[in-house]
Amino acid sequence: MRRVVADGFREFVTVRVQDPRLQNEGSWTSYVDYKIFLHTNSKAFTAKTSCVRRRYREFFWLRKQLQKYSGLVPVPGLPGKLPFHMGCSDDFIECRRQGLQQFLEQAVQNMVLLSDSQLHLFLQSQLAVAEIEACVQGRRSYTATEAILNYAISNRGWAQEETE
After folding, report:
1. pTM
2. CA gap 105, 71 in Å, rounded
3. Residue 120: which of 100, 95, 145, 139 has the closest Cα?
4. Is the CA virtual torsion 61, 67, 69, 74 positive or negative?
5. What is the rounded distance in angstroms from the CA atom of residue 45 to the CA atom of residue 41?
6. Distances (CA, A) of 77 to 23, 89, 110
7. CA angle, 41 then 132 then 124, to 5°
8. Which of the residue ranges 58-62, 84-88, 125-129 would you say has the lowest mean pLDDT?
9. What is the dihedral of CA 40, 117, 144, 150, to 10 degrees?
């Protein structure tokens, strides 16, 4: 996403969903999570570079939260779920990865959705969804900005290695 704002300043947001990894392989609780890498110069974001891992059900939760608070603004769709008995093929995982990336690209381009602090915490902290909800509702001793900054400081090396 690129947007020109005052004084010819070019604002950009690059978000990539990559590196799908199967967790707990061979067990009933196995799942795939994805690395979300974000790089921006936008004033809308607290950290200019971030990297987190999220699984599909967390994307599903985010979409539901965005729908709840976006009013009449349409929220982008997610790729579908796969019936349990079908297993997870490499093609399915890649198709899902692409769909999750499209979802995030569209979400960060929408000013209404971009104003939701849950989206920012999802993209720029590794907080669990229950912690994101608690933070946004003021039930934590830290703000969304503090949570993002603390995560950025603690993971500076990881985010920097992604940009090289």
Report:
1. 0.86
2. 20
3. 145
4. positive
5. 8
6. 25, 22, 13
7. 25
8. 84-88
9. -30
pLDDT tens string 50-78: 999 999 999 999 999 999 988 888 999 99
41 token code pair: 């110069």
How is residue 67 written in tokens?
Answer: 């729908």
* Direct distance between the N- and C-terminal alpha carbons of the chain, in angstroms, rounded to an integer: 20
Crossing angle of the two packed helices 144-154 and 117-124, in degrees rounded to 10: 10
Cβ-contact 1, 114 below 8 angstroms: no
pLDDT band at 5 (very low <50, low <70, confident <90, very high): low
Question: What token pair was written down for 83?
Answer: 């019936």
E strand residue ranges, the chain = 2-4, 10-23, 31-40, 49-55
* Residue 76 φ/ψ, nearest 5 degrees: -55, 155
